[in-house]
Specification:
This protein is an alpha/beta fold. About 45% of the residues lie in helices and about 15% in strands. It contains 14 helices and 13 strands. The strands form four sheets. It has a seven-stranded mixed sheet, sandwiched between helices. A two-stranded parallel sheet has the order 1-12. Helix 13 packs across helix 14. Bound molecules: (2S)-2-hydroxybutanedioic acid. InterPro entries: Aminotransferase_I/II_large, Asp_trans, PyrdxlP-dep_Trfase, PyrdxlP-dep_Trfase_major, PyrdxlP-dep_Trfase_small. This is Aromatic amino acid aminotransferase.
């Protein structure tokens, strides 16, 4: 039967990872996959995570199953980080998931169970795997305009115009912060306007929060999510711990669902059911480390310090790249690089220009000209700036 299988199109981001690895040039620069790298190009295990692992090794006495939906302590720690200390526990259901991707997948599954006819509205552009998963699930989705490719900024009027068409019970997927792939984010006023619209239409926001702490700060990056959570009766939040805790391969994520208090028990039970049907228990190691880091004041302080180093390092690289490009282009047309937040910026370059930079300069970015700022360092910024100008961007 397997000879009837058709080859699947490779994931663009993961295919680029393989292409980069295979390139023999020693001066190659990887601005592809969204993985944080320090100035030496390493993705270190964060210090607080190392300390927590040591403590865990010394104290853990069993690896028997945990709860199907994950540990309540993990849920509480994540809810506090994402929603703030006063989160509405009586309305909140939580699920430990296989990374942020698993949280997205389970959110789509939950929406489909609750409202089989719903449409999921997704920003254009978005993380390609959102669309890929929705297509795989045969889930209806529609795109709403999000990015103004000339201004390299949020096309807010166009977004709101498109979202006028949402129906009650539709799901609107929003990036909580550090929009992937553009780096262009909603202001708090814009979040409030989106909340008004979704409330008026009776639609359900689903927030993908994969980069909390990488933009303006841990609290600041949650502001849009918290605003939505305070305003809307039903909300889904898919939070990832891959980037902000640097535990990519541990596959640690959490799906949080706000419902009315009367529906909480069934919602929580349905989340656990979704884990059981798809893969039973989510990995626990990363979730346990995150819980330890978030709840132990010493570990938390150590983690916050490192997270801030990471965030400020990326901001510094943004400033440097914008300044180099200002000088080389003798214009301010690349200043958006300094305004964007998170790991990514979309340059607005053509696929040909992206390919030229790969061929001529061994610079790898995703074909839509998304670049991972964390793939740069002080020495490679001028190389990239020269390549961008040489490619005619
Ligand atoms: C990215 O967008 O590069 C990351 O989220 C990694 C991934 O899984 O695609």
């Amino acid at each position: 039967m397997f000879n009837s299988l058709k080859a699947q199109a490779p994931d663009k981001i993961l295919a680029l990872m393989g292409q980069f690895r295979a390139d023999p040039r020693t001066d190659k620069i990887d601005l592809g996959v969204g993985v944080y790298k320090d100035a030496e190009g390493r993705t270190p295990v964060m210090r607080a995570i190392k300390s927590a692992e040591k403590q865990l090794w010394e104290t853990e006495t069993t690896k028997t199953y945990t709860a199907l939906a994950g540990e309540p302590a993990f849920h509480a720690a994540m809810a506090e980080m994402v929603l703030g200390a006063g989160y509405p526990a009586d309305r909140l259901s939580c699920l430990a998931t296989v990374g942020g991707t698993g949280a997205c997948r389970q959110a789509f599954e939950l929406a489909r169970l609750a409202n089989p006819g719903c449409t999921v509205w997704v920003s254009d552009p978005t993380w390609p795997n959102h669309l890929s998963i929705l297509a795989f699930m045969k889930q209806d989705y529609k795109l709403y305009r999000y990015f103004d490719n000339d201004a390299r900024a949020v096309a807010f009027d166009a977004m709101m115009e498109d979202l006028q068409a949402i129906k009650a019970g539709d799901v609107v997927l929003l990036h909580g912060c550090c929009h992937n792939p553009t780096g262009a984010n909603l202001t708090l006023d814009q979040w409030a306007a989106v909340a008004d619209l979704l409330e008026a239409k009776g639609a359900v926001p689903m927030i993908d929060l994969a980069y909390q702490g990488f933009g303006d700060g841990l609290e600041e990056d949650a502001a849009g999510t918290r605003l939505i959570a305070a305003r809307l009766p039903e909300v889904m939040i898919a939070a990832s711990c891959s980037k902000n805790f640097g535990i990519y391969r541990e596959r640690t994520g959490c799906l949080m669902v706000l419902s009315d208090a009367a529906s909480k028990e069934v919602t929580q039970g349905t989340l656990a059911y979704l884990n059981r049907q798809n893969y039973s228990f989510s990995p626990d190691h990363g979730a346990r480390l995150v819980t330890m880091v978030l709840t132990d004041p010493t570990l938390r302080a150590e983690w916050m310090t490192e997270l801030e180093e990471v965030r400020k390092g990326m901001l510094g690289l943004r400033e440097q790249l914008a300044a180099e490009l200002r000088q080389l282009s003798n214009s301010d047309r690349f200043d958006f690089v300094a305004r964007h937040r998170g790991m990514f910026s979309r340059l607005g370059a053509s696929p040909e220009a992206v390919e030229k930079m790969r061929v001529d300069n061994a610079i790898y970015m995703v074909g839509d000209s998304r670049l991972n700022i964390a793939g740069l360092n002080a020495k490679t910024v001028p190389i990239l700036a020269r390549a961008i100008i040489a490619a005619g961007v």
